[in-house]
Every structure is written in structure tokens, then in C-alpha cells.
Specification:
Elements (H helix, E strand, L loop, with lengths): L2 H5 L2 H20 L12 E8 L5 H16 L5 E9 L2 E8 L4 H15 L10 E6 L6 E6 L5 H17 L4 E7 L4 E7 L1 H6 L4 H11 L2 E8 L4 E7 L5 H5 L2 E4 L3 E4 L4 E7 L5 E4 L2 E10 L5 H16 L4 E7 H30 L3 H24 L6 H24 L6 H30 L6 H39 L8 H33 L1 H21 L2 E2 L8 E7 L6 H16 L4 E9 L2 E8 L6 H12 L6 E4 L7 E10 L2 H16 L4 E6 L3 E10 L1 H6 L4 H12 L3 E7 L2 E9 L14 E3 L5 E3 L4 E9 L1 E5 L2 E11 L3 H13 L8 E3 L2 H32 L4 H7 L1 H16 L2 E2 H27 L9 H25 L11 H31 L13
Parallel strand pairs: 7-25, 16-32
Antiparallel strand pairs: 1-3, 1-4, 2-3, 2-29, 5-14, 5-15, 6-14, 7-12, 8-9, 10-11, 13-14, 13-18, 17-19, 17-20, 18-19, 21-30, 21-31, 22-30, 23-28, 24-25, 26-27, 29-30
Helix pairs in contact: 2-11, 3-4, 9-10, 10-11, 10-12, 10-27, 11-12, 11-14, 12-14, 12-27, 12-28, 13-14, 13-23, 13-26, 15-16, 15-27, 15-28, 16-25, 16-28, 23-24, 24-26, 25-26, 25-28, 26-27, 26-28, 27-28
Length: about 1000
């Protein structure tokens, strides 16, 4: 269909528009609000606890079998694990995951669990965003409920309920003990009857039986028969008969005290100094955090109805929802600003209405397209729509300006046919230049969403400007002209728009004169103008080329996590006292709102929240570190530096022997710390507490008729009292812990005086069978891809990954180390650098494709050079601002420059295409340049204004996590202004010096 025919059918256009709006509304009805967790963080975590087992034994019996079983899971990119006292955790980093993946993992884990002793706890499998701090943290209370029932409900009821929420990952509780059945054995009385703790444990386990006896069948019936032999409660357990000698039995209560007790706390938590029970939730693999927050709020209300009270400390989803509302408000402000500018440009009520209505229409259609492609509406997608809106209405602005006199369809078609190639060129170049950002989604998936939203809005705006707006601008005006009376009724809106244009005429005339003088100065002094432009371009390129690349994504939210490392032997109570003093000092600082502490053996965690309006994130980090220096015998570690120009990189040492690995890592950390660009190094492991080694003599044990395993098991029950059985009581599954009355010995040396039962019924002191010595063992053992590893972190000043890698690896390369041991620099940082370099190359390739596209559209090889010439000049201001503001070019800044290049090229295309329409009449004449810029100055100026108006409100959103959005907004605003200046100074000088760049190629032959 020809343009003239289409422009003559306003009803058809209105129907098509209505259909688009209806489809868009349907697409948006199912859209999700808020960010999803990035797929790059997705992992499955398998955790198994086995109380009373040291780190080495956990690695041998649990971690390594789990790794072997899980190594066959398809789609994993990396496997990491750690083993510590009583706990093993294996983490599978996944490329992608589905229900089948979970089923495979579950089956593999269950096979391993079936081989473990009954005292091992059931495996816990969670999807998790590994490395993520809790996105929801709350203190939980239940007034009037005793501690035992509270702990049981928390662990068996509330925790599983929150874990089942859509998007929830791991849920942890701190500061509470779990109920358990304690069987405290009198060793002398048991020994006199020929019993030891193992025999008591076996009797309890044998008495708790539930199993099938088969199915009784008759001709017509089949009845399952189940044998049930469970003891019904604590009193029945006390009366349980334990075999002694050949034929006798005694009740369990005759040799042991059986009662319901509370397991010793594994952590102690406080909020602002008050002892509290904490519930912490981490997100699942691809959770929508706003949706997760809403689901948590509903679940919390259900528990509050049952008498529980929650004091929420951290709610990242709620913060993101507030941030979303702020961004949405800024976007609406930008839309309003663009709409306010339109009456100054458009002439007539219809032109103003068409241009103004195009703004929400383009926004609606672009948002619907994003929703249809499966994207959620987070700050990145909204930022792209807002930035794209200011630049995309340019197509409508130019169309309205070209059709401002309301021509008939034939005239409108003729004018638009000359304009559409420029619009196509602008849209095409904008889309092409955004392609590198689509390749940067590996670094920040939000960048991909931003690039896609900008690209969609550019394409949709082109369609509206080229094919919808002219229909209503031309045909409506044509019919109105035919039917209008001699004296038309002027509406109030038209009169207001006319007055606004009248009031702005002096400013417009001044602007035109200023632009005209700039053009004439540039054309007359082209050598000087080109020299200045070349210098500015060279400066922009030099700044960009020499700036270190920073791959940090910026901070999120108003919470900061701190780790406080104490002596390995430090008890929970000792750590808690120091954390409480540290929390009091932090809480007294202005801007710090809440300080939550969790004390564990040898270390503690601090989660503090702050008011971003009163104190910045870097100031909070600096404060936490400086106050941490006052904590006695402790080291404070922050995952992010207090200095915004400081970055942390993980160096891995891999090998076979864990002791050698720790020695190598410690030596390497000391060596790296001496580098001038390294501010500090931190070992990601620490020596465990001093361990008492009881060396059992095999020969001595054999002389007394026993063995090493029996002696070790007896001593373990004296000292620690392991879990020997799980017992079901009603709806509860309780651990049964077997220990001796002598479990709390006065000193470690007294362990050797403990009696060991012999097969003859007598006892022998442990000192007759073993000797005692002391050594240190690691508190946690790490593995990566089924190999032993140790880590340390280097804090580096500056953001150049390549320079940091080269400097660190050069000095580590000279270290002596055994064969088979190797150092590895932070792989994730290197991958980001490599892919960033690939994206930079892709950006250069995109510029080449832009040249090809423009050359094909203009049928000229010279014209695209003129279009692209202002790109480095206009980039100078935003590049300089990024360099001075951060000391490096962050990922968000690079993405902003890519988006910005499309804006700059669009402005340049309008002027160059107009220059090509006005062929230079002869050497030395400047009138054609003056006419070119003067005819284009209005749309170019309004394009700049709408771009700035659409972007600038985003720069003032009060959200500590909106760094990328603010960077994008400011870079776009600066770049649009720079493009306007370059288009009236650099471009005229270039066209004056080389008029052939704007001359149409002739196909005539001599």
C-alpha cells in the first residue's frame, strides 16, 4: 500500500491503533513487577549435618561421596563444597535448571544418605542465589510460649512454611536451641551390669520399629500387615528394657537419666543489644524479589494470627518496590516534561494532541512488547523505556514539524517519503549500536533488559512517527480545511498553545541567532574548529582507552553485612560479648538504624541497616571497619571495600594436602600484600581451635579385649554425647543424644581418667589405652570441582582487572611450591574482562555496520563519515564525567555510552540528510550550510530537549541501588547536549571543508 493511500484512511489507522492498545493491555495484565535474581547466581545447595563429627571425617564420609554422586548432574558449571565440624555443604552452580534437574539431585543425595549412620540428619536441598545475603531478616517472638515449644514450632513449622514460598531459597534460624531427648548414662552403674553407652543406644534404636510384614490375601481381599513397635513417649522410653548378660534385662532408667532437654545453642543473636531469635531468608535461584516480599508478608500475617510477632530488620523486596514506585514516578515526570515541550514545537491543536498522545502510546506498546518477551519490569527495564522515550519521540517530533501546516495526504506522503530514509537510518543505527549491550548480559542481565527496552521503543516510535502520526496529521487537517467556515472557532487549548509559542518566540529567535553565529563562525574558521574538534575527540578516546575498567555493579539496598573473626577457640558467649559492644558503638552513629548480631564459635556476623538520606554506603562501610579495629582480638571483614575505588579478587590455591594448601595461601597472601596497588589481603580460611588428640594404642586395647572404635565411641559419649537415634513422638521427630554423667570433665587432661568398659565387665582408665597431645586442625575444609583448595582475597586499589591479574600472578609465579599445586586468579573477574573486551570489539563492529547501513540508505560512501564524525566530540563530556566521578569506567557507564551513541547519531543524521538535499552551489558559499542548520535547528533542539527531559528525572531518584539508572540518565543528558553543540560547530566546519561529504552521488554518465 502506498503512503498516500494509507494516509487517507484515518478510520483504519484508528482501528489498528485500538487493536494494538487492547493487545498491549492483555500482555501487561500478566507482567511481573520487580527484578528477578540473576541466572548467573543460580545454584543448588545440599547440606547434611552430622553432629559430633570433625571436619576431616565429614569430608571423607559425607562431602566426597556427595561430590561423586552429584558430578553426573547435567548443566553444572562448577562444584564447590566445604566441610566443618558437624556439617557438610556441596554447591552446584548451574547453567540452567528445571524439575528434572532437581529430581536427579535428590536421587543422588538420597543414595548417599542411605549409606550414612542413622545419627546423620536428613539432607536439605535448596535452590539458592549463592553469595547472596539474606533478602529478608526478622526477629521472631511468641509471648507466653515456652522455649521448647517455640523452638519446635520455629524449626518444624515456621521454617518449612517460609521455605515453600515461591522464590524462597534457604531459610535459617539463629539464636534458638532445638528440643532433644537426653539419655545421660551413669558409667559406673552401667559398667557393673556389663553395659556401655553403645549398648543402650542400640537398645533404643531396636525398640523404635515400624515396618511391613507383607500382605495377607484371600480370594476376595488383600490386607497389608504393618508391625508397629515404637515406644509412645518419654516415660515409656524410661521403662524400656535393656538386655544385660545372657538373659536378663533392666529398665533404661536404672542406668540413665532420660528427659526432654534443649540442644546447646549453635548461635546467639541480638538486635540492638536485645537477645532475639532470628529468621533469615535467602532467595531461590531466579526469585522475583518483590513478589517474594509480598508472599513473605502474607505468610507472616498468618503466623501473627497465631500469636507470633515479627520485627522486620531487612526486607529487600519492599525496598525494591519503593524504588520501583520512585522510578515509575520519575518516568511519568519525564513523560510530562516531554509533553510540556511539545506545544512549543507543534502548531495547531491537532498537532499538539497527536504529538502528546504519542508519548504514552509509545510507552504502552514498548512495555507490552517487553512483557510479551518474558521480561519483568525492574528498574533496568523502566530506565530503558524512560531513556528511550526521550529519544524515540524524536521521530514523532520530526514528523509533526514536517507536517505542521496540515497538508493533504498526497503532500504529506511526498514530504514523508523524503523524511522516512532519515528516520529509518536513525532507528537502524540505534538498534545496531545496542547489539553489543545484548552481549553484555553475562555481566549484568539488567543491562540486557535496558538495551532491549531502548531498542524496542526506538523501533515502535519509528512506526508511530512514520505511519500512524501522519495519518491523523494529514487527513484530519485536510477534511477540516474543506468543511471549515470562514471564521473558525479557536479552542482554549489552541489559544494557550499559541500564547506559549508567542511567549517563547524571543527565546527561539535568540537561539536561532546563536546557532546561526556558531554555524558561520565554524564554517569561516573551519581549520580552528576542526582542530578543536579533533583535540576534543582525541581526549575522549584517550580517556576511554586509558581508564581502568570496573566490573562492579554498584551497591544495592540499605543494608550492609560484616563478618567479625575472633580466635578459633572463642566460645559463643565470648564472641557475643564483643559483638554486643561493637553493635552498641555502631548503633550510636547517626544514620545507622538497626544492628543485628549473630555470635557463633570463633566468629560472628553483623547485619546493619542505615538511612541512605543521612549516610552513604561507603561511609557506613568505612565506619564499620574503623570501629571494628577496636574489637579486641578480632578482625572485621567486609565483602565490599569502604573505598568505592577498591575491588576484591579471590585467588585460589589448589592441590592435594590441605595443610600445604593453607601454608601456601598464607605465604602468597603475605607476598601479594606487599604489592603497591594492594591495600590488604584476607585469608578465607582460619586455623581451627586447638584440638586434643587422644592416640589410642591398638596393642593396649587388644590386651584388654577391646578395640580402637569402641574406646573412641566411649570417649565421644563422655565428652560430646553424639546423636545416636531419631525418635518420632506424635508429630515431632527428636534427636536422641547419648552421653555420660562425666561428660563435663573439669579439664581436658581428665579425659584419660575416664573408665572404659571391657568385655569381661570391668573397667580400665583411658590412660592405660591412650596418650594425649595437642595440635590445631582447620575449622573448615574447602573443595572446588572435587579438588582440595584454599582461598585468599586481595583488596586492590583501582579497577583494572588485567593489571591486577598480571601483577598478582607475576609475583605468585616466582613462589616455590610442590608439584601439582597451582594458583588461580579470580575466574569470574577474568571472564567479565574477556567478555567485556569482546563487547567492546562488537561495539566497533556495530559502528562499521552503521556505516554500511547509512551508505546503503544514502547511496553514498561519504555521507556516513559525516554522520559519525560528531560521535567522539559529543562523547567527551559524558566520558570525562564518568572518569572524574569514579576513577574508572564502570560497566554501567560503558552501557550508557553505547546507548548514548545511538542518540548522537540520530541528531547527526537529520542535519547531514538535510545538507544533502541542499546541494552546495559552489566553492566558498556558506548559504547552504546556514540554510541546512537553520531548517533543522528546531527539530534538533527539540530532540535534545525531549531527550534531556525524559532522562533527567531518573538522575534524581532517591534510591541507593539505582546507580546504573542514574549513570544512564546523566550520560544521556550530557551526551545529547554535546551532540547538539557538535552538530552546530564541528559538523558545519567539516561540511565546509569537505562539501563532497554532503553531496548526493550522481548516477548520470557523461
Amino acid at each position: 500500500m502506498r503512503l498516500e493511500s494509507w494516509y487517507s484512511r484515518p478510520i483504519a489507522a484508528a482501528c489498528a491503533l485500538l487493536a494494538l492498545v487492547m493487545v498491549s493491555a492483555a500482555a501487561l495484565s500478566g507482567a511481573r513487577i520487580g527484578p528477578n535474581e540473576t541466572a548467573s547466581n543460580f545454584a543448588w545447595a545440599v547440606t547434611i549435618q552430622h553432629y559430633g563429627v570433625d571436619a576431616y571425617e565429614m569430608q571423607r564420609t559425607v562431602t566426597e561421596p556427595l561430590e561423586n554422586a552429584l558430578s553426573a548432574v547435567a548443566g553444572r558449571t562448577e562444584m564447590r563444597s566445604f566441610s566443618e565440624y558437624g556439617k557438610s555443604r556441596v554447591i552446584l552452580y548451574m547453567r540452567d535448571s528445571d524439575d528434572e534437574t532437581y529430581a536427579t539431585i535428590r536421587d543422588a543425595v538420597e543414595r548417599v544418605y542411605a549409606t550414612l549412620p542413622s545419627s546423620a540428619q536428613r539432607p536439605v536441598i535448596n535452590s539458592t542465589s549463592e553469595g547472596r545475603q539474606p533478602v529478608w531478616l526478622a526477629a521472631v517472638r511468641a509471648d507466653g510460649m515456652d522455649r521448647e515449644d517455640f523452638a519446635r514450632v520455629l524449626d518444624k513449622g515456621m521454617k518449612p512454611a517460609f521455605e515453600k514460598l515461591d522464590g524462597a531459597g534457604e531459610v535459617e534460624t539463629y539464636g534458638t536451641g532445638m528440643p532433644e531427648i537426653s539419655v545421660t548414662i551413669d558409667p559406673e552403674r552401667a559398667a557393673s551390669l556389663g553395659l556401655d553407652p553403645s549398648a543402650c543406644a542400640q537398645a533404643v534404636a531396636a525398640s523404635d520399629f515400624l515396618g511391613t510384614c507383607g500382605v495377607w490375601r484371600s480370594d476376595e481381599l488383600g490386607l497389608a500387615i504393618v508391625a508397629y513397635g515404637r515406644t509412645p513417649g518419654i516415660e515409656a522410653l524410661k521403662d524400656l528394657r535393656v538386655p544385660v548378660g545372657q538373659s536378663g534385662t533392666v529398665p533404661l532408667s536404672a542406668v540413665a537419666d532420660v528427659r526432654l532437654a534443649e540442644r546447646e545453642y549453635e548461635s546467639l543473636s541480638r538486635v540492638d543489644g536485645r537477645e532475639e531469635t532470628i529468621l533469615a531468608l535467602r532467595p531461590g535461584g531466579k526469585a522475583n524479589l518483590i513478589g517474594l516480599s509480598a508472599a513473605i508478608a502474607r505468610e507472616r500475617e498468618a503466623w501473627e494470627a497465631e500469636g507470633f510477632t515479627f520485627s522486620v530488620i531487612v526486607d529487600t523486596g519492599k525496598e525494591l518496590a519503593e524504588s520501583f514506585r520512585g522510578i515509575l514516578s520519575a518516568m511519568l515526570q519525564g513523560m510530562l516534561a516531554v509533553a510540556i515541550i511539545i506545544p512549543f514545537m507543534a502548531r495547531g491543536l491537532k498537532s499538539v494532541a497527536v504529538a502528546a498522545l504519542a508519548v504514552p502510546l509509545i510507552t504502552l506498546l514498548s512495555a507490552a512488547a517487553m512483557a510479551a518477551l518474558g521480561y519483568t519490569f525492574d528498574q533496568n527495564a523502566l530506565s530503558g523505556i524512560a531513556i528511550g522515550l526521550g529519544t524515540s519521540v524524536d521521530a514523532v517530533v520530526v514528523a509533526v514539524e514536517r507536517l505542521k501546516d496540515g497538508p493533504r495526504p498526497a503532500v504529506a506522503a511526498e514530504r514523508m517519503s523524503r523524511l522516512i530514509p532519515s528516520l529509518v537510518g536513525g532507528a537502524l543505527t540505534s538498534v545496531i549500536v545496542l547489539l553489543p549491550l545484548m552481549g553484555m548480559g553475562y555481566a549484568d542481565e539488567g543491562i540486557r533488559a535496558t538495551a532491549l527496552s531502548v531498542g524496542l521503543i526506538v523501533v515502535i516510535a519509528f512506526g508511530v512517527g512514520a505511519f500512524l502520526a501522519p495519518v491523523f496529521l494529514s487527513s484530519v487537517h485536510a477534511r477540516a480545511d474543506a468543511a471549515a467556515p470562514a471564521h473558525r472557532q479557536v479552542s482554549a487549548v489552541s489559544r494557550l498553545a499559541g500564547r506559549l509559542r508567542l511567549a517563547s518566540r524571543p527565546l527561539a529567535r535568540a537561539a536561532r541567532r546563536g546557532f546561526a553565529r556558531a554555524v558561520l563562525w565554524s564554517a569561516k574558521r573551519k581549520t580552528l574548529a576542526l582542530a578543536v574538534s579533533a583535540a576534543v575527540s582525541a581526549a575522549a578516546v584517550a580517556i576511554l582507552a586509558t581508564s581502568p575498567m570496573d566490573f562492579s555493579g554498584g551497591s544495592e539496598g540499605s543494608a550492609l553485612s560484616v563478618r567479625v573473626e575472633c580466635e578459633p577457640e572463642a566460645s559463643i558467649q565470648s564472641v557475643d560479648r564483643r559483638l554486643t559492644a561493637y553493635a552498641d558503638a555502631l548503633g550510636a552513629e547517626p544514620g545507622v538504624t538497626t544492628v543485628q548480631t549473630t555470635a557463633k564459635r570463633g566468629y560472628g556476623d553483623v547485619e546493619l541497616t542505615y538511612d541512605p538520606q543521612l549516610i552513604g554506603r561507603e561511609d557506613v562501610a568505612r565506619l564499620a571497619r574503623s570501629l571494628g579495629e577496636r574489637v579486641p582480638n578480632a578482625f572485621v571483614f567486609l565483602s565490599e571495600g569502604a573505598d568505592p575505588g577498591e575491588r576484591s579478587y579471590e585467588i585460589t590455591v589448589s592441590g592435594d594436602d590441605d595443610a600445604i594448601l593453607r601454608e601456601l595461601a598464607a605465604a602468597a597472601a603475605r607476598l601479594v600484600r606487599e604489592l603497591p596497588f594492594v591495600s590488604d589481603t584476607v585469608l578465607n580460611f582460619k586455623e581451627g581451635p586447638q584440638t586434643a588428640i587422644i592416640d589410642i594404642d591398638h596393642a593396649a586395647a587388644a590386651r584388654y579385649g577391646t578395640d580402637v572404635a569402641t574406646v573412641a565411641d566411649t570417649l565421644r559419649r563422655y565428652v560430646q554425647g553424639p546423636v545416636g537415634h531419631k525418635k518420632v513422638l506424635g508429630d515431632r521427630e527428636l534427636d536422641v543424644r547419648f552421653l555420660s554423667e562425666r561428660s563435663r570433665v573439669a579439664s581436658v587432661d581428665e579425659v584419660l581418667s575416664l573408665p572404659i568398659l571391657t568385655p569381661s565387665g570391668g573397667t580400665v582408665p583411658a590412660a592405660a589405652l591412650a596418650t594425649l597431645s595437642y595440635e590445631r586442625e582447620p575449622s573448615r575444609l574447602y573443595r572446588k570441582n572435587r579438588r582440595n583448595v584454599a582461598f585468599f582475597t586481595a583488596r586492590v586499589r583501582g579497577a583494572d582487572v588485567a593489571a591486577a591479574r598480571d601483577g598478582i600472578m607475576d609475583i605468585l609465579g616466582g613462589m616455590e611450591r610442590p608439584a601439582g599445586y597451582a594458583f588461580e586468579f579470580d575466574r569470574s573477574a577474568l571472564e567479565l574482562q574477556e567478555r567485556y573486551a569482546a563487547s567492546r570489539s562488537a561495539f566497533i563492529l556495530a559502528l562499521a555496520f552503521i556505516f554500511i547501513a547509512l551508505a546503503a540508505l544514502s547511496e553514498s560512501l561519504a555521507s556516513p563519515l559525516a554522520v559519525l564524525s560528531i560521535l567522539p566530540v559529543a562523547m567527551f563530556a559524558p566520558v570525562l564525567a564518568l572518569r572524574l566521578g569514579w576513577g574508572g569506567i564502570r560497566l554501567s557507564g560503558m552501557a550508557s555510552l553505547v546507548v548514548l551513541s545511538g542518540v548522537i547519531v540520530n541528531i547527526s543524521i537529520l542535519i547531514v540528510d538535510e545538507a544533502r538535499e541542499r546541494a552546495a552551489p559552489g566553492k566558498g558559499s556558506l548559504s547552504w550550510l546556514y540554510g541546512t542548520v537553520r531548517s533543522r535547528v528546531v527539530p534538533v533542539a527539540f530532540m535534545t530537549l525531549t531527550t534531556v527531559a525524559g532522562a533527567l528525572p531518573l538522575a534524581f531518584v532517591r534510591d541507593p541501588g539505582a546507580e546504573f539508572m542514574k549513570t544512564l540518565a546523566l550520560a544521556t543528558a550530557w551526551g545529547a547536549v554535546g551532540a547538539l553543540v557538535a552538530s552546530v560547530i564541528s559538523l558545519p566546519a567539516l561540511l565546509s571543508a569537505a562539501p563532497s561529504l554532503a553531496r548526493k552521488q550522481s548516477r548520470d554518465t557523461e
